[in-house]
Amino acid sequence: MSSNGTSGACPSPASERIDWVDYAKGICIVMVVMMHSTLGVEAAAGKQGFMHLFVEFAKPFRMPDFFLISGLFLARVIGRDWRTYLDRKVVHFAYFYVLWVTIQFAFKAPAFAAEQGWTHVGVMYLQSFIEPFGTLWFIYLLPIFFVVTKATLRVPAIVIWLAAAALETAHIATGWTVIDEFAARFVYFYSGYLLANYVFALADRAREKPGLALAGLAAWALVNGVLVFTGFGDRPVISLALGFAGACAIIVTGTLLARANWLGFLRYCGEHSIVIYLAFFLPMAIVRVVLLKTGIIPDIGLVSLIDTIAGVVGALLMWWGAKRAGLNFLFERPAMFWIAPKQKRPAALQAAE
């Protein structure tokens, strides 16, 4: 047990990947791309399609599950010295944030400049290091979560958890993404760290009793759908409960898919979830513009679905192309940006995962 009561007995991801974790991450990243694709298409078209229902259904648990899974293996590394810890958990993500916010600005700067001038573009770029830009807020916030969790090791875990739960329930809305999303998401990340053994036990139980797991998923889907579509999903306490319930549902779903060895593409997406997260904005935007400008597909829901697929597949194609073109730095951190020695890895690069 660590000093705050967290067990370090969860399986290690270093020796081999855990199938249901990759499936769960794959489901999450597809849902994230689906949200951005659908809302982007609908905003540009001025109307909603059938995909909007899926986006709304997933709203309570889409990001909570992502953050919970991000904290699952933290107990194994949180005891490292600060230099190594900061290298793996802060510098790593900072490298990709700086790189990809710059890439996003390179594509979007002309449109920004046409509206408010190039000076404003420069100001916006500098502001992106204070106010996370666009889709990249997740990797901006993760290092903050890692640092806060290690810095509060001496504080009783129950105190941290209750404070985090209170922040989520408060539904803080300052307008600053860092504060608002920290308040809304930290409880899930910390729970993944604190309750990792229980999460793995849940997955084991689902694997052992698939019939019971399916019944539980059906009940959850009904309750989640009713609360969301009757307008209660965003209420204090209810949002917290739905976040955890949905995260558990995704974990169980991932476990059942892994058990049956179905939908392997979701597992592949989970193995490369950060790659997709970094790059999906570009193919998503291109396909959205083409489909809406040409009007070849009149159904907005179908346009959103195609745009979602394009975002996921396009990001993976960009990654494959970058590797073949020798542009590994786009998705792998070069050795020159390490501040602590690499351990047991002869390769000079650390993948974005």
UniProtKB/TrEMBL annotation:
CC per GO annotation: plasma membrane
Membrane topology category: Multi-pass membrane protein
A GO molecular function held by the record: O-acetyltransferase activity
Superkingdom of the organism of origin: Bacteria
Compartment(s): Cell membrane
Cytoplasm is among the record's keywords: no
Keywords, comma-separated and alphabetical: Cell membrane, Membrane, Transmembrane, Transmembrane helix
Gene Ontology biological-process annotations: enterobacterial common antigen biosynthetic process
Family annotation (InterPro entries): Acyl_transf_3_dom
Transmembrane segments: 23-41, 61-78, 90-109, 129-148, 155-176, 182-200, 212-232, 238-262, 274-294, 300-320
Domain Acyltransferase: start-end pairs: 19-320
Family: Belongs to the acyltransferase 3 family.
PANTHER family the record matches: INNER MEMBRANE PROTEIN YCFT, O-ACETYLTRANSFERASE WECH
Name of the protein in its database record: Acyltransferase 3 domain-containing protein
Organism: Afipia broomeae ATCC 49717
